[in-house]
C-alpha cells in the first residue's frame, strides 16, 4: 500500500514510524515532512500542509491507497472532504466535524446543548459588551479566541486590567487574526489536567493511554505557553474511576452530540480534561492527535495502527480489539534557544546512532542541508523513551537528551516530576 501523511512535525514522525510497522506498507509520502522524517518516508517539501489542491492532486497522481491528515489547519480547511471526493480513504474528520476544534463557540455551545461538563462561559462578538461583562467578573478568568490560533489563543488574565487588555488584543488589534472575531470568556477551573486521545468512527470509541502535557516554556510551569515541552503517559491522575466517569459523561455524549448535529466525528478526538473537585470537565477538544502527546501514546500501542485507522474509516472500530503495552513513556522536547519567542535556525544537529532500542528521536523542526540535518523550527526534536516505570522512562529519555547536541539547545528539566509526585500519592 502507498500511504500519504499530511504534516511535518514530531507527531507526524511518530505516526509514520508506527504506520511503517505494517508489512503491507510500501511507500509513505509525507507532505511536507521534514529533514528527519525523510529517513522514514518520501518527503515533499514543496507541498505545505495547507495546500489542499496540491495535496489532492498529489494523492491522485501517486496511487495513494490511504491518507492520514494530522494537523488542525488542513482538517478545518476540508482536506479530508476533498480526498474523499477524489475516492481516497482517509483518517481524519471532515471539515464540519473539525469545527469541534476550529470553533470554540461551536464546541462550547455543543457542550451546553448536550449537558457535557465544561467551564461556564459567555460568547461575545462585540468588544464593548465583553468589556462591560468583565466589570462584574471574578479573576482569574479565561479569554479564548474562537478560531485556530496555533494553540496560543487562550489568555488567563489575573485582574480586570489584564482582562481588558486581552479582549482588546484579541478583538481589536486582531493578534490572532480573524480567529478573534468572536471570543469565549469562561470560568477559571482548577485541578490536574489530563489529555485523552481517542480513536472513534463516530459511534465506537477507543480511548488511548492517557497523557500529561507540559505547556509552559520554563521549569516549574513558568514562562510563556508553548506547543508543548514534554509529555508522559499514562497520566497517573487519570484513575480507572475518572476514566469510567469520562466515558459516560463526556466521551459517549460528545459522539452522540456530533451525530445529532449531523457532523459525526471520525478520526482521533482529543479530550483536554480537567479533573476538578466537581468531576471531570472539558477544557478543550482537538480534532486530531496532540503534539507531543502522540510521541508518548503511540509507542505504547500494540495493535497495528494502520488496521485501526482503516477500521475508523470503514466504521468497524467496534469489532477491533485494540491493545496497549504495559509500562510508561516519556518525551522531552529539545527546542531552539529563545522558543516560543524568536530563535536562530540552521544549527547543525548531532544525534548518536547507538541510542538504545527503547529510545526514539522524533524530528519536529529540522531540514536537510548539504547532507546534514540543521534546525529549522522552534521545537526541533522529541526524545521519547519507554520503560517499565515512569521513572525509568524519564531517566532514559533525559540520558539521551544529553547525547544530542545543537547550538542553543533548550529543554525543560522537570518533565514528569508532577506525575511522579502524583504517583507517590
Ligand atoms: P488550550 O489552548 O485550549 O489548550 O488552553 C491552554 C491552556 O489554558 C490549557 O491547557 C489550560 O491549562 C488552560 N485553560 C484553558 N481553559 C481553562 C479554564 N477554563 N480554566 C483553567 N485553565 C484553563
Ligand atoms: N499538545 C497540545 C496540542 O497538541 O494541542
Please describe what this structure looks like.
The chain is α+β, with helices and mostly antiparallel strands and 425 residues long. The protein has helices at residues 10-19, 52-61, 72-76, 79-85, 95-102, 104-114, 127-134, 160-172, 240-260, 294-297, 305-314, 390-401, 417-424, and strands at residues 2-7, 27-32, 42-43, 66-69, 90-91, 121-124, 141-145, 154-155, 183-187, 193-200, 205-207, 212-213, 216-218, 222-225, 230-233, 267-276, 279-286, 328-336, 359-363, 366-369, 372-375, 379-387, 409-410. α7 (127-134) runs antiparallel to α8. The termini are far apart. The model has no long low-confidence stretch (mean pLDDT 96). Bound molecules: adenosine monophosphate and glycine (GLY). Glycine (GLY) binds at residues 151, 213, 228, 286, 290-291, 293.
Strand-helix topology:
Blueprint (H helix, E strand, L loop, with lengths): L1 E6 L2 H10 L7 E6 L9 E2 L8 H10 L4 E4 L2 H5 L2 H7 L4 E2 L3 H8 L1 H11 L6 E4 L2 H8 L6 E5 L8 E2 L4 H13 L10 E5 L5 E8 L4 E3 L4 E2 L2 E3 L3 E4 L4 E4 L6 H21 L6 E10 L2 E8 L7 H4 L7 H10 L13 E9 L22 E5 L2 E4 L2 E4 L3 E9 L2 H12 L7 E2 L6 H8 L1
Parallel strand pairs: 1-2, 1-4, 2-3, 4-5
Antiparallel strand pairs: 6-9, 7-8, 7-9, 10-11, 10-16, 12-15, 13-14, 15-18, 16-17, 18-22, 18-23, 19-22, 20-21
Bound molecules: adenosine monophosphate and glycine.
Amino acid at each position: 500500500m502507498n500511504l500519504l501523511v499530511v504534516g511535518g512535525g514530531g507527531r507526524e514522525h511518530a505516526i509514520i514510524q508506527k504506520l511503517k510497522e505494517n508489512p503491507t506498507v510500501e511507500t509513505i509520502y509525507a507532505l511536507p515532512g521534514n529533514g528527519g522524517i525523510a529517513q522514514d518516508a518520501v518527503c515533499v517539501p514543496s507541498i505545505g500542509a495547507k495546500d489542499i489542491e496540491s495535496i489532492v492532486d498529489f494523492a491522485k497522481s501517486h496511487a495513494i491507497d490511504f491518507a492520514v491528515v494530522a494537523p488542525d489547519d488542513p482538517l478545518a480547511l476540508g482536506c479530508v472532504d476533498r480526498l474523499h471526493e477524489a475516492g481516497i480513504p482517509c483518517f481524519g474528520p471532515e471539515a464540519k466535524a473539525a469545527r469541534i476544534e476550529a470553533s470554540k463557540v461551536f464546541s462550547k455551545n455543543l457542550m451546553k446543548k448536550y449537558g457535557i461538563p465544561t467551564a461556564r462561559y459567555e460568547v461575545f462578538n462585540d468588544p464593548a459588551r465583553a468589556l462591560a461583562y468583565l466589570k462584574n467578573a471574578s479573576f482569574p478568568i479565561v479569554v479564548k479566541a474562537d478560531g485556530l490560533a496555533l494553540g496560543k489563543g487562550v489568555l488567563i488574565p489575573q485582574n480586570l486590567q489584564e482582562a481588558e487588555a486581552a479582549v482588546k488584543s484579541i478583538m481589536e488589534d486582531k493578534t490572532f487574526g480573524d480567529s478573534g472575531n468572536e471570543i469565549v470568556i469562561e470560568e477559571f477551573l482548577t485541578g490536574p489536567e489530563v489529555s485523552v486521545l481517542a480513536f472513534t468512527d463516530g459511534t465506537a470509541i477507543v480511548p488511548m493511554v492517557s497523557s500529561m502535557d507540559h505547556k509552559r516554556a520554563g521549569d516549574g510551569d513558568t514562562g510563556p505557553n508553548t506547543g508543548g515541552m514534554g509529555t508522559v503517559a499514562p497520566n497517573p491522575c487519570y484513575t480507572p474511576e475518572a476514566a469510567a466517569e469520562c466515558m459516560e459523561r463526556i466521551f459517549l455524549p460528545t459522539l452522540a452530540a456530533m451525530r445529532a448535529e449531523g457532523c459525526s466525528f471520525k478520526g482521533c478526538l482529543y479530550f483536554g480534561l480537567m479533573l476538578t473537585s466537581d468531576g471531570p470537565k472539558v477544557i478543550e477538544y482537538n480534532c486530531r492527535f496532540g503534539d507531543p502527546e502522540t510521541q508518548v501514546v503511540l509507542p505504547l500501542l500494540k495493535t497495528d495502527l494502520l488496521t485501526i485507522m482503516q477500521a475508523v474509516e470503514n466504521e468497524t472500530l467496534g469489532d477491533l480489539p485494540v491493545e496497549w503495552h504495559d509500562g510508561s513513556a516519556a518525551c522531552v522536547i529539545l527546542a531552539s534557544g529563545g522558543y516560543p519567542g524568536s530563535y536562530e535556525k540552521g544549527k547543525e544537529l548531532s544525534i548518536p546512532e547507538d541510542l538504545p532500542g527503547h529510545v526514539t528521536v522524533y524530528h519536529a523542526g529540522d531540514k536537510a542541508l548539504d547532507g546534514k540535518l540543521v534546525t529549522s523550527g522552534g521545537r526541533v526534536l522529541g526524545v521519547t523513551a519507554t520503560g517499565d516505570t515512569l521513572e525509568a522512562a524519564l531517566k532514559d529519555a533525559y540520558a539521551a537528551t544529553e547525547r544530542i547536541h545543537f547550538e542553543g539547545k533548550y529543554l525543560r528539566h522537570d518533565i514528569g516530576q508532577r506525575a511522579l509526585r502524583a504517583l507517590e500519592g
